[in-house]
Each structure stands twice: as structure tokens, then as C-alpha cells.
Amino acid sequence: MMANTPVSNCLLPMKLITLIVIGFFLTILNAQSAVGEKGSQRLRPILFRRRVKRATDCTNGFIAKDMTSNTLLPALYPTEQLDACLNNSVLLANLTELGHIAFSRNQLLVLKRKLGEIFTSGLPEERIRQLGFIITVYGPEEISMWNITSADTLALVLNNSPNLNTSKVIIGNYLQRSGQLNAVALDAIGGPLLCTLSEENLRTILPSELKKARPMNIFTCTQAKKDILFGIAKVAFQDLAGDPKAYFNQLKPYIGGARASDLQRLAPGNISMDFQTFSSLNPVEVEKLTAQNVRDLLGINLNSLKENENHEIVRRWVNTHSVAEVMSLGIGLTGGISPAGLGNLSILPLPGSASVNSYSLLLSICVAVLGITLQCLS
User: Fold this and answer.
1) What does the alpha-carbon distance between residue 93 and residue 64 come to, in Å, rounded to a whole number?
2) pLDDT bucket at 55, cuts 50 / 70 / 90
């Protein structure tokens, strides 16, 4: 028989070790099958504890209070290091400062998660005011659960709202919690967002608060909402009614809700309304104005009607007034309703040096006489 060699002597221990290793992993696989995914989650920390620990170690130094205003913090502490090196206590004590730093979205998500660990029942309102840029990583559903009751909180949150839909949710949250549309809230909301509120909400605005608020652009509001806001503005600035120019300047942002009677009262005040403001008026109410009303309203800007004769509001006024009244403005506007039986008139300019105003007046008289004559003959 051949004598045993050193190699053959090692075969038995090696086979034994191999069987032990295979048996160990088979045991693990059987354990995972028995307890399911939940059980496997318990085993992973055991198997990979050393690797995970190394990934979450703070190697850049823990963030102290005097570092929380450093605008270079996002570069100094990448997402993993920010998570590892920022203690919850430091975050809470310096939330305002950290909320004003331009972290990346992933870094902001770290701050959001840490706040969730601190406030398990939801963020208190005083903390919501401190969030700053962190607001941008909260979704509309999360924001709808906040408790926003102060106009100051509303202003701070809206200032960092990432988009229109989120802003609407923020305002809705405030109003649902009996938040008042006072001057602070109105300034925070502004005109375009104000136009998204319901008519019922708009009616709650007190004239005294509208008066204190900054002027708002309500161009995108429906006509019904413009009417409501103008009605509030009239009351808010009624103490200036004795000074037509000052009164008009305060009403101008809301003038789209003015009725014909309001415009007729403003007309004699030498306000010289510019065409942009005129074009924002309610066309239905403008149609009720006489040529003299229009002349008085626009004053030195009357020629702007001719310059914008194809604008809808100009055409609507022309098409609802007689040719004589249109021509009486003396600015070269043509069109209007012809006297019965005359059909549409095409007006040609007279030769010579006669002024436009004199010609317009003469033409108006002729048209009026012809109209009366035809009515008598019929």
C-alpha cells in the first residue's frame, strides 16, 4: 500500500470545513424562508453591521452651533455626512439658520426626516415658521395637515412655497383654520392667488384691511370677484372721495369691478384715465357710458381710443352707440349705429384745412338732421 502523503492528510479537514460553510449558509437561507422578508431584515444588520457603521460615521466633524449659519455647509457636508454629523438637538436649536441655507434636495430631505424624529405628532406652528427652504420638500398632503393659524406663518410659508399648487394648499390650510384675510395675509397672498379664492372668502375681507394692504393685480379674477373687490375698495377709500385724483389712484387696481354709475361719478374729476386702465374695465359697463363720459374719463388720453380702435373694449363701445356720438369724440373713430334707413355710412375726409373737430361736428349735425327727416317721412 502507498503511504499517506501530506496532501491526502489535508483532504479530510478541508472537506469538513467546506461542509460547515455550506451548512451555515443553508441555515441562513432556511431561516429567511421561514420568517419571510421581515426576518431577513433582522438578519441583515447582523451580517453587515460593520459596513453600515462605517457608512454612517461622522468623519467631517460634528456640526456645532457656530457653523449653522455657514453658507458653505452644503459643500462641507454631503448628504451622508450631514445626516451623520448633525445632531437633532443642534438642528432644533438652530432651525431658522439651517432653514435659510441652500441645501440640495437630498440634504433637505435629511433635515425633514430628522424633524420627523423629533416631532412624531406633527410640526408645531412655531417650528413651521422656521422651516425656510425645508418647506420645499414637504408635499401638499403633508402641508394640509399642518396647523397654520397666523398670518405671519402664512406669509413665511408662502414665501418658500415651491409651486402654485402647494401655495393653494397652504392658503386653504390657513383659511380652514379660521385664518383671517387681514392686511398681512393679503400681502402674502397677492392678486393672482387671491383670484383663486372663493367669492365667499373674498367677501370676508374688511375694507380697513384692504386699505392697509399693498395694491393687488386682480386682472385674472372673474368678473364676479372683481365686482366684490371693487365694492370693498370703494368703502375702504371713501374718505378720499372729495379728492377725485387721489380716490381714483387708490381704486385703480380694483377698477375692473366698477359699474357705469361709479365711472360716471369719477369722470368729471379730471383723472385722465390711461388706456391700459380703461381696457381693464367691465365692457358691459363701458357700453353704458355716453361719449361725454368717455371724453371726461380719458381726458388728455382720449386719442388712445383711436390708437387702439381695434381693441375689443373700443369696438364694443362704438358698436353700441350712434355714428353721431362716435364722431362727436372728434378723434377720427368710425363706425357706430346708423340712423334708420341710412345703412352703414362710409366717411371720407374733406379736402382743405378744416379741423377734424369742426368736420366731426358738422357731420354729426347732418346725420342727425337726416335721421329726423327720414323718421318724419316714414
Assistant:
1) 11
2) low
Sign of the torsion angle spanned by Cα atoms 183, 250, 263, 221 = negative
Residues with Cβ within 8 Å of residue 310, at least 6 apart in sequence: none
Neighbouring CB atoms inside 10 A of 98's CB total 27
Of 304 and 51, more confident: 304
d(CA 92, CA 170): 23
Measure the CA–CA gap between 251 and 231, rounded to whole angstroms: 10
In this prediction the pTM is 0.72
Helices (H), 280-355: 283-286, 291-298, 304-307, 312-319, 323-327
pLDDT at 178 (0 to 100): 84
Q: Annotate 208-249 with three-state secondary structure.
A: HHHHHCCCCCCCCCCHHHHHHHHHHHHHHCHHHCCCHHHHHH
pLDDT category at 375 given cuts 50, 70, 90 is very low
pLDDT of 338 reads 87
Which residues, in sequence order, are bridge partners of residue 337?
322
Confidence of residue 357 (pLDDT cuts 50, 70, 90): very low
Amino acid residing at 320: T
Per DSSP, the three-state class of 322 is strand
Closest CA to 143 of 151, 135, 132, 153: 135
Apex 38 CA angle, 32 and 44, nearest 5? 65
Burial class (CB in 10 A: 0-12, 13-18, 19+), 278: buried
